[in-house]
## 1
Amino acid sequence: MKKVIPFVFMFALCSLIFKPVISVSSSQSLAKKVIVLDPGHGGMDNGANVGKVNEDELNLKICFALKEELESRGATIYLTRTDDQDMTKRDYNYSKQDDMYLRVLKIDEYKPDLFLSIHLNSSSSGAWGSQVFYYQNSQEGKRLAQNIHDSMKPVTGTRKNISPCSFYVVRATQSLGVLIECGFLSNENERGQLKSSKYQKKLAVSISDGIESYYQSLNSGV
Ligand SMILES: [Zn+2]
């Protein structure tokens, strides 16, 4: 028995010294996070449009790129819509109010860690650039918006800043979330980029990086 003890001791010591480093690989950095993606508009509501380019279609494509990127980092993703229908799934009597009401219910139903409402902007002034909006009374929303904005900036080159708002989707939801205007469809240059799947992928990567930075900032207590 006496001889066994040193062995046990040595084994315990070795296991302390050579303790395997269990690290979450960067590809699983968003494991256990539930994220809802909300592609704006759909169905009879095309959102902004220029010629044959419709916002609702591009919102969906950006969300598909985001889904792929976020899933590759371990997150569980739900979408409020996956085809060209709004939440009412009606092809008559379109009601923005009904659509938004159902959208909010659907987002909260998943009890997500956060949600992103994805949109494209339009203006007659030639404006361009991405912009992230957060609910005006939400400090967490502001923090999330800032992290996503900082990460998107090198990709979109935006000179805009994050902005407080009281848009229904961020105001009425119980969940933490932001609304991202990824760029202006009305700006010819930006429209060209927004239509390209390569750029959609870049947006998806930068937004995902922003979400990671947000969680890192929470963990580091900054
Ligand atoms: Zn929109």
Note: The two ends are 53 Å apart (CA to CA).
## 2
Amino acid sequence: MRIIVSIKGVPKLETVKVDPETHTLRRESAELMLNPFDRSALEIAARLKEKYHAEVIAISMGPPNVIPLLREAYSICADRIILLSDRAFAGADTLATSRVLAQAIKKLAPFDLVLMGLKSADGETAQVPPETAALLGIPSITNVKDLFFEDKKIIALRETEYGLEELEAEPPIVASLYPKLDYFRPPSFKRLLEVKNRELEIWSAKDLELSIEKLGLSGSPTRVSGVFEKKFADKGEIWEGEPEELAKRLITLLKEKGFLKA
Ligand SMILES: Cc1cc2nc3c(=O)[nH]c(=O)nc-3n(C[C@H](O)[C@H](O)[C@H](O)COP(=O)(O)OP(=O)(O)OC[C@H]3O[C@@H](n4cnc5c(N)ncnc54)[C@H](O)[C@@H]3O)c2cc1C
């Protein structure tokens, strides 16, 4: 059994700076971390690996600063890690991203399962998993809490607004995960040291046999028509003074607003 986990590096919130002129994120100054949903996907992959003796391959599309995250994936459960990196991938929207991921996944066939996070913490579109499945021509199951194999079929438990749905599918499928896990195995220090001295597999646009016009900014139909900062109409007030005086002031205000009867 082969499981592919697709992981994304997202900026650590506390290191993100916003450009005051353009209001866009200054990504180059931000430190990266594993997208939290993808950390869960790795834990699920580790559990499936233990249960079914599966092979786990982790892939990520991004610049070389995602390499430590792929190494983290190796230290958790991956047997093989592959970075998908090329200048031609820069500026990709979800479709151009999915094209690269789908082509890499095709190259890794035969596979039984592709695990992704439900959504990323920065882009947050949740489009990449179903788009990748569509490009691969295989089923997509989103919002999966848990999944297992039974009689060569995949059983996925999917959370909906009405309750838990149980879906059955023939492998291979793409599942986007939203599990509520109470335990994450820690990365293995031994495996971290092992992977540090290994040469990393890096696949470029040429390796993936993808034509440049379908990639990056030129292959992205999404256009950002404007970026603006959210303004709060009511800024709030801070009152200072003695508690009794403040309480009287609050009662007067509540009466004025009609929340208390005069
Ligand atoms: C309107 C708009 C404009 C954008 N413009 C730009 C731009 O100009 N330049 C730019 O660099 N980015 C841009 N982005 C960001 C870029 O589109 C996303 O980083 C990328 O397409 C992934 O989409 P997402 O973050 O919404 O992923 P989601 O669909 O929310 O992610 C779900 C899952 O898909 C998988 N996944 C997503 N991305 C990757 C990845 N790179 N590698 C491996 N797995 C992955 C992960 O498992 C993840 O948990 C833009 C995004 C939007 C919405």
Note: The helical segments are 36-52, 67-76, 94-107, 128-136, 189-196, 243-256.
